[in-house]
Automatic annotation (TrEMBL):
InterPro entries, A to Z: Plipid/glycerol_acylTrfase
Leader peptide range in chain numbering: none
Highest taxon above the source species: Bacteria
Cited PANTHER family: 1-ACYL-SN-GLYCEROL-3-PHOSPHATE ACYLTRANSFERASE
SUPFAM superfamilies: Glycerol-3-phosphate (1)-acyltransferase (SSF69593)
Residue intervals of the Phospholipid/glycerol acyltransferase domain: 73-187
Transmembrane segments: 12-32
SMART domains for the chain: PlsC (SM00563)
One GO BP: phosphatidic acid biosynthetic process
Protein name (Swiss-Prot/TrEMBL): Acyl-phosphate glycerol 3-phosphate acyltransferase
Amino acid sequence: MINVVRSLIFYAGYFLAMLMIGVLFLPIAPFLPLSGRYRLLNLYNYFLMVWFRIACGVRYDIQGRENLPTGPCVIQANHQCEWETVFLQVMKPPVCTVLKRELLRLPIFGWGLRLLRPISLDRSKPARAMKQVLTQGVERLGTGLSVLIFPEGTRVDPGIRKRYNKSGSVVACRAGVPVLPVAHNAGERWPGRHWVKQPGVLRVRIGKPIETEGRMPDEVLADVEAWIEAQLQEISDVPRPTSR
């Protein structure tokens, strides 16, 4: 019962903060340069990080911040829930996120996303989506933005393993930037398919950048998947399968 009450309190703050962002910041954001928009709208993500910890009794164990590169990179992480999409925005800003186009239609939240130049995909047209990721991903990296691509493509519950997509590794190899691997167990604290949050330790591991210069995307992807899965074996409370 206590987790239900905590979750209700959390969502009260979640939606109140979103409403305040929509009223106070969204009218200003379009008139700011892109870097200014990130700083302004990222305040919501910083708030959610703190509010989730306080309201839901979660403790963060984040290791590897010293591995963050100074220049742009392709960030690849396992995808379990909404929490990591928030954390990865504040981990190494500014970052361009590859996401499904439907998210841009959400009131307030989607309006803010549009201002941050994401790469929005129509998942009903996979060939076109792949071309879009490759073209716009390299372009965004060239402007100094990092690019966030979830190699699993969609949310995957803890304890389940899905095939990794190589689009992020292809973008990194074409742009000549490193891949930054990130592993976490956020779905155990913030279930992707249920609104009730769970207290406990939320663990994040940030790996050393994986170089792409002179390498093939398949080789880079193999390194990314091996590192993320090895970390998940260590930090997950839900047992990991040994293969896909």
